[in-house]
Amino acid sequence: MGSLAAELEAALREWMDERLTLEDAAEERGLNYDAMRKRLERGVYVNVGKKGAPRIRRADLYNGQPREVSIVEQVLAGLDK
Asked: CB-hemisphere CA count at 13 Å for 51?
C-alpha cells in the first residue's frame, strides 16, 4: 500500500507542478483570459514561463484560495488514516 500512496503522491505533485498557459489557468479557475492576465501583471501569480509566453504553476492557482478537494487528494488523505 505504501508504494501506491507514493505513486499517487508523485502523480499529484507532478500535476500540481504543471506550468499552465494563461488560457488553461483561466479556465481552471473559472476566469476569463483578461482577468488572469491582469492578476499576473499585478503579481497575484508568478510567471514561471518567459516574456511573451507566460505560464502559471497549477499549485499557485490554489495557494490561499478556497477550492474543492480533488478525488486524488481525498484518496491520499484516506491513506494517511
From this structure: 0
Q: 3-state secondary structure string, 34-76?
A: HHHHHHHHHCCCCCCCECCECEEEHHHHHCCCCCCCCHHHHHH
| Cβ partners under 8 Å of residue 73, min gap 6 | 12
Cell numbers describing residue 51: 516574456
CB 20 within 8 A of CB 56: yes
Q: Determine the pLDDT at residue 66.
A: 41
Q: What domain range includes position 9?
A: 2-79
Mean pLDDT, residues 40-58: 92
**CA-atom Rg of the chain in angstroms:** 15
User: pTM score, two decimals?
Assistant: 0.70
Say how many domains are in the chain: 1
